[in-house]
Every structure is written in structure tokens, then in C-alpha cells.
Amino acid sequence: MCALLHQDAEILRSRDASLLKQCDVVVDVGGEYDPAQHRYDHHQRSFAESFHSLCPEKRWVTKLSSAGLIYLHFGRHVLEQLTQLKQHEPQLELLYDKMYDSFVEEVDAVDNGISQCDGEVRYSISTTLSARVGHLNPRWNSSDQDTEEGFQKALALVGAEFKDRLDFFMKAWLPAREIVQQAVQSRYQHPSVFKTSSETGLPKLFHYNIYTVGTESIQTP
After folding, report:
1. Are 99 and 131 in contact (CB under 8 A)?
2. CA distance from start to end of the chain
3. Per-residue pLDDT tens for 43-67?
4. DSSP 8-state assignment for residue 101
5. Nearest Cα residue to 158 out of 95, 81, 80, 99
6. Which end of the chain is more exposed for a tag (fewer CB within 10 A), N or C?
7. What are the φ and ψ backbone dihedral angles of 181, each rounded to 5 degrees?
């Protein structure tokens, strides 16, 4: 996330406290969460923050990892830069929420060892974003244990996938949501609420994904 916002920044990978003190932003190391000093670690025992605990208006209660912390504090600025939307525009806040809900929260949960569901899983999933990043680590029996090449590949992988999902949500999900919202608002003007969406070829999948539009817009007389 920081790499997307500050592409020319120097990245120092270290746990040396004396070196960390010299850094402008410290992420995922240091044992400290202090946004005023730009320290964003989540490994300390005292840390139990979620998106909801830091931003009560947001509903997510999954414990944040450093990825979620950075997204919470810098995500809107990243989206501004990538979409050219401004923070006062409602579309930006919709994308901000959607990217956390459908991209970043998964990373938080996996990093913190939080299962997606209760009970015994029926099969394993080994192609998640976190798993693919993990596959970039040197193999245990490799003669070359340098992690820098894998780290750079991971930066590129995560950055590309973040941009791809954002592009999809901005150019496909958001327009679909607006169509459904318009249909809900005009539901008394036409016998078929979703006639407009069917005329535009809106996939049924979008109806499910943006069902919340209806609950947000419909007011009981």
C-alpha cells in the first residue's frame, strides 16, 4: 500500500531498532502502533484493533494486520491517486469500503490466523493472495536463501492484483450498483424493478453482490 502511494520511497527491511528509528514509516515490525509517529505494527500483545474499533461507522470486526492498518490510514489517498476521484465524492468511499470488504480484510484474517468459517474445512485452498506471496519465499533446500528477489516479486504481485480489483470495482461493480440503485428508487414507476438492468445485460451476479442497495434505499411508508 505504501509502495503504491510513494513509489520512489526507499524500502528498508530490518528489525534493527536503531535503524527503524531512522525510518519515516515503519510497517509490520517494531512492536508499536502509533499513527501519529507512523508506526504500524500489529504483533504486540496489546494490539486488538479492528476497522470497527478505530472507525466505529465501519462494520468490520476482523483484527487488523499491518496491511489493514495501512489501508485504514492511507487507503483513501491511494484510491484518489489511482482513480482520480476526490475524497468528497461518494464513489470514492464506496470503493474504499468495497476494497476492504473484498480484498484487504482477507489479508488481515489470514495474517492473524483467523479462519473463514467455524468447523472442519472440506478442502484446502492454496491459491489465495497470501499463499501465492508465501510461495515466493526461498525453498528450504535452496542454496540461495536471499529473500530480496521474492520480496520484489511479491510487491509487484500484490500491487497488480490490488489495481486489477480496483479497476473492476470502479468500471464494472460501481456502474452496476448505480443501475440497481436507480431501479430501486424508481420501483413504483415501473412494474418490473429490474427491467432497466435486464435491458443493459447486467449479470445476475451483480444483483446478489449489490443487494444492499435495496436495503439502503427502500424506506417503509
Report:
1. no
2. 44
3. 999 999 999 999 999 999 999 999 9
4. I
5. 99
6. C
7. -60, -45
This prediction's pTM: 0.87
Contact 85, 95 (CB under 8 A): yes
CB 41 within 8 A of CB 70: no
| Amino acid found at 137 | N
CA 106 to chain centre: 8
Instruction: Please report the pLDDT score of residue 204 as a whole number.
Output: 59
pLDDT at residue 221 tops 90: no
Q: Is residue 112 helix, strand or coil?
A: coil
Place of cell 490490488: 162
Of the candidates 97, 38, 24, 95, the one whose C-alpha atom is nearest the C-alpha of residue 69 is 38
Record the cell numbers describing residue 77, joined without a space.
489517498
Q: Of the candidates 1, 6, 9, 5, which has an alpha carbon nearest to the alpha carbon of residue 159? A: 1
Q: Is 63 helix (H, G, I), strand (E, B) or coil?
A: strand
**DSSP string for residues in 80-100:** HHHH---TTSHHHHHHHHHHI
Please report, for the chain, the start and end positions of each structural domain, with discontinuous segments joined by +. Answer: 1-11+18-111
